[in-house]
Write a structure and sequence with these properties.
It contains four helices and seven strands, in the order αββαβββααββ. It has 140 residues and is α+β, with helices and mostly antiparallel strands. The protein has one domain: Beta Polymerase, domain 2 (2-Layer Sandwich), CATH 3.30.460. It has a five-stranded mixed sheet. Strands 6-7 form a two-stranded antiparallel ribbon.
């Protein structure tokens, strides 16, 4: 069995998600923060149908590379799909769920991983923030 580097697996996941028009891909390096995952991959789909399509694309890409996920949750609802890839945890949200759960802020101490994919910013500005105003923080 070949060991896949965390950055390579994350790249496969993000490329597959982008093929299904995923938005705001972020990869967090979790190796120094958790014992159960090397990376978290955060993705957004615009609808429940797109969230499920992105998840299916990620699963297809993993299988194509000989990777079998441990489990998948949330496919029926399409609001937040979680794919446990053992050393990578993939979170695919609709926009409201991504803003509500705000994993980027929860895990703000996790370094962002630059996958070197053209057009993908490893540090995008969250959608709920505009011109210095944080819509998620009523005190801002």
């Amino acid at each position: 069995m070949t060991v896949v580097e965390p950055k390579q697996k994350a790249r496969w996941i993000v490329e597959a998600a982008l093929d299904r028009k995923a938005e705001r891909p972020i990869v967090l390096d979790m190796r120094n923060l958790t014992f159960y995952a090397d990376t978290f991959v955060l993705l957004t789909g615009r609808s429940d149908r797109q969230v499920r399509a992105i998840a299916e694309g990620v699963l297809e890409a993993l299988h194509a590379h000989g990777e079998t996920p441990i489990g998948t949750e949330g496919m029926n609802d399409g609001v937040w799909v979680l794919i446990d890839c053992n050393d990578a945890i993939v979170h695919i949200f609709d926009p409201e769920a991504r803003d509500k759960f705000d994993l980027e802020r929860l895990w703000q101490d996790a370094p962002r991983v630059d996958l070197g994919i053209e057009g993908v910013d490893p540090n995008p500005v969250p959608e709920n923030r505009t011109a210095g105003h944080d819509a998620a923080d009523p005190a801002a």
